[in-house]
Design brief:
Elements: E1 2-5, H1 10-22, E2 29-32, E3 50-53, H2 61-69, E4 74-77, H3 87-92, E5 96-98, H4 105-120, H5 123-131, E6 149-153, H6 157-168, E7 172-176, E8 189-191, H7 194-200, E9 203-206, H8 220-224, E10 230-234, H9 243-252, E11 255-260, H10 282-288, E12 293-295, H11 304-324
Parallel strand pairs: 1-2, 1-3, 3-4, 4-5, 6-7, 6-9, 7-8, 9-10, 10-11, 11-12
Helix pairs in contact: 1-11, 4-6
Bound molecules: nicotinamide-adenine-dinucleotide (NAD).
């Protein structure tokens, strides 16, 4: 198959080519494009059977129509989320959509823990101080995670890994999920309602998908329901948090700290070197002004193991589509 790969970084090319040699028998032909996929760039995929897209590529109806008209009948998402794909339009245009449902839940859960530990023990600030020869401890005070209550919202693959790590720290873990993982039955955790979870937790970590139901799950109202001074961690999707409401809660001290790997307007910021540009996003700029906010640029998935798994599963998805117009990782409405 001829596949147009969008939002390509050098590491995507390396891992996809290696997987093509191993899993694809070298039979697929990739064209690598740096731009994000959207209506403006969809024409790059002319005469390609498939496109391979990433988290911030936009596959709305208009984009899918352009792709369909120029011969594309398959979208291979090289990520788990598919919130930017118009699945109804894809179905109407007979375009198959597959994703990589799991590649390394450990990578994302471990990054959530990294954000939590770095915020609590003020590692970025401590590191800067030591490099400047300042060994004073005032301002670096943290707390023991042991014995604290951790609220986990979403207990799928990543949430479950996060739960297990937090249990290892000696935390009390409470979970909220409308469809909780059966694996929780084996673990020493409590399943409770969202409001109870927010009221009881010293730390809240989000691991549910973004959907119309979960958009701005963290709002003025839910931030108000949290324990004063609690920490909030989001490695899931930026749209889960109303960023302006989080800023107000940080200003008032209602929110004790915020660790995010995702941001609701990240599409025009993340994955590029913008160090020579003027930051025009005032909301993001305000977030960066807080000492108790830690932001990483959607890197939670970024481990060697995860990239190998993403590439291998993407190649399997392409093989299955080529062989049977089907596949175990197809997504439907
Ligand atoms: P998953 O599908 O295995 O689990 C999601 C869980 O959320 C399910 O158990 C589901 O029942 C639950 N859920 C659905 N609606 C909910 C709600 N309203 N409240 C609470 N729980 C709800 O997904 P996963 O593999 O664990 O991934 C979780 C999310 O992590 C993905 O949707 C994706 O957005 C994000 N993610 C981020 C990165 C990153 O690099 N930052 C990488 C991979 C995935």
């Amino acid at each position: 198959m001829k596949i147009a790969v969008f939002s390509t970084k050098p590491y995507d090319q390396r891992f996809l080519e290696a997987a093509n040699a191993q899993v694809g028998g070298g039979k697929h032909q990739f064209s690598f494009f740096e731009p994000r996929l959207g209506a403006q760039t969809a024409n790059l995929a002319q005469n390609h059977d498939a496109v391979c897209a990433f988290v911030n590529d936009v596959l709305d109806r208009e984009t899918l129509q352009i792709l369909s008209a120029s011969g594309t009948n398959f979208v291979a998402m090289r990520c788990a989320g598919f919130d930017k794909v118009d699945l109804r339009a894809a179905r109407e245009l007979n375009i198959g959509v597959a994703r990589v449902p799991a590649y390394s839940p450990y990578a994302v859960a471990e990054h959530a823990v990294a954000l939590l530990l770095a915020l609590n023990r003020k590692i970025p600030r401590a590191n800067s101080r030591v490099r400047e020869g300042n060994f004073a401890l005032e301002g670096l005070l943290g707390f023991d995670l042991h014995g604290k209550t951790v609220g986990v919202v979403g207990t799928g693959k990543i949430g479950l890994c996060f739960v297990k790590i937090m249990l290892g720290f000696g935390c009390r873990v409470v979970c909220y999920d409308p469809f909780p993982s059966p694996a929780l039955d084996e673990l020493d955790v409590e399943l409770i309602g969202l409001n109870e979870l927010l009221a009881q937790s010293d730390i809240v970590s989000l691991h549910c998908p973004l959907s119309p139901d979960t958009h701005h799950l963290i709002s003025n109202q839910t931030l108000g329901a949290m324990k004063r001074g609690a920490f909030l961690i989001n490695t899931s999707r930026g749209g889960l948090i109303d960023t302006r409401a989080a800023i107000d809660a940080l200003k008032s001290g209602q929110l004790g700290a915020l660790g995010i790997d995702v941001y609701e307007d990240e599409a025009n910021l993340f994955f590029e070197d913008r160090s020579q540009e003027i930051l025009t996003d005032d909301v993001f700029g305000r977030l960066l002004s807080f000492q108790n906010v830690l932001v990483t640029g959607h890197q939670a998935f970024f481990t060697r193991e995860a990239l190998e798994n993403i590439a291998t599963t993407t190649l399997r998805n392409l093989n299955e589509w080529e062989e049977s117009r089907g596949g175990s990782n197809l997504v439907t409405e």
